[in-house]
Write a structure and sequence with these properties.
The protein is an alpha+beta fold. It has a single domain, classed as Oxidoreductase, molybdopterin-binding domain (Sulfite Oxidase, Chain A, domain 2). It is built from 7 helices and 12 strands. Strands 3, 4, 7, 8, 9, 11 and 12 form a 7-stranded mixed β-sheet that branches. A 5-stranded mixed β-sheet has the order 2-1-10-5-6. Bound molecules: ligand MTE. Ligand MTE binds next to loops.
Length: about 300
């Protein structure tokens, strides 16, 4: 089934050439979606009115609590985060554990453009043209062992560079997790760019998870550690409030947040004219991912 949120790179979406100086971010861009079973050339454009948000919108309205809880705090303060050098530790139930330099990961991975809808649990959404690689490719490189069932992720913790971690808003470092089949799903990417430019610090430089059918808080930023495990990992928001934030946190218009409805969402952009639109099951990716949850009660396993 064609996915309305995955876009092939079209002329009108291509940003000016000078934005593409960083070639590593666009290699394979025209092949967006190719890895998706049964999709191939049937990928379709985002529907009218849901063009990608502007670079300005995507990079100035953020959640990155390590830099403060205001939407404009990350853009204001995340510049302090040192992203070079950067390494990602991959450990746990893998054949090839190690500390991998970001540059080496980039050399080994194929960067594609993926235009995804991004739905925050706070009931706002954007459409983001990410550049990145499939998490499955990285995990396959690490060699996932047969007993592994989950993947745990961890964000950098740098009190000197992150003013927000002085406050106990969350139990730092920010941690997240996925079931292994979710992590291996071709829609799950590690994003390294936006609009063909290196991903800005406020969006999770130099690499962050993007799981488009789940609420945005699952998409952990500035990842320094990936651990394969046979136990369901603890996740930051679940630790903070298990009743409100489950391990799965799949976008679901039928299961409200205890304090607000999830039936609709506000599309960021357009200022006063920002629209409210109905929220779609699995954020519009139901055809691709519903099978992962067969037999589960999605009202219970939130
Ligand atoms: N990752 C870390 N490390 N810290 C955070 O505070 N916020 C999450 C997620 N990843 C967060 C994080 C939430 S709530 C959302 S909605 C998205 O990042 C926001 O991503 P964006 O700023 O790129 O839109």
């Amino acid at each position: 089934m064609a996915n309305r949120w995955i876009n092939t790179l079209k002329d009108k979406d291509v940003t000016p050439e000078d934005m593409f100086l960083n070639r590593r971010q666009i290699m394979g861009g025209a092949l967006a979606g190719v890895g998706l079973a049964g999709m191939g050339s049937s990928v379709s454009a985002a529907p009218e009115g849901l063009e990608p948000n502007s670079y300005e919108e995507i990079t100035s309205y953020n959640n990155y609590y390590e830099f403060g809880t205001g939407k404009d705090d990350p853009a204001r303060y995340a510049g302090k985060l040192t992203t070079t050098p950067w390494t990602v530790q991959i450990d746990g139930m893998v054949d090839n554990p190690g500390e991998f330099a970001f540059e080496d990961i980039m050399k080994a991975m194929t960067i594609e453009e993926r235009i995804y809808k991004f739905r925050c649990v706070e009931a706002w959404s954007m459409v983001v043209p990410w550049n990145g690689f499939e998490l499955a490719d990285l995990l396959n490189m690490a060699g996932v062992q047969s007993g592994a069932k989950y993947v745990a992720f961890e964000t950098a913790l740098r009190p000197d560079e992150m003013p927000g971690v002085a406050y106990p808003v969350l139990d730092w470092p920010y941690v997240e997790g996925l079931r292994l089949d979710e992590a291996m799903h071709p829609l799950t990417i590690m994003a390294t760019g936006i609009y063909g430019k290196d991903i800005p610090n406020q969006n999770g430089a130099p690499l962050r998870l993007v799981v488009p059918w789940k609420y945005g808080f699952k998409s952990i930023k500035s990842v320094v550690k990936i651990t394969l495990t046979d136990k369901q990992p603890a996740t930051s928001w679940n630790k903070a409030n298990a009743r409100e934030y489950g391990f799965y946190s799949n976008v679901n218009p039928e299961v409200d947040h205890p304090r607000w409805s999830q039936a609709s969402e506000r599309l960021i952009g357009g200022g006063l004219f920002s629209k409210r639109v109905p929220t779609l099951m699995f954020n519009g990716y139901e055809g691709e991912v519903a099978g992962l949850y067969e037999g589960m009660d999605l009202a219970k396993d939130i």
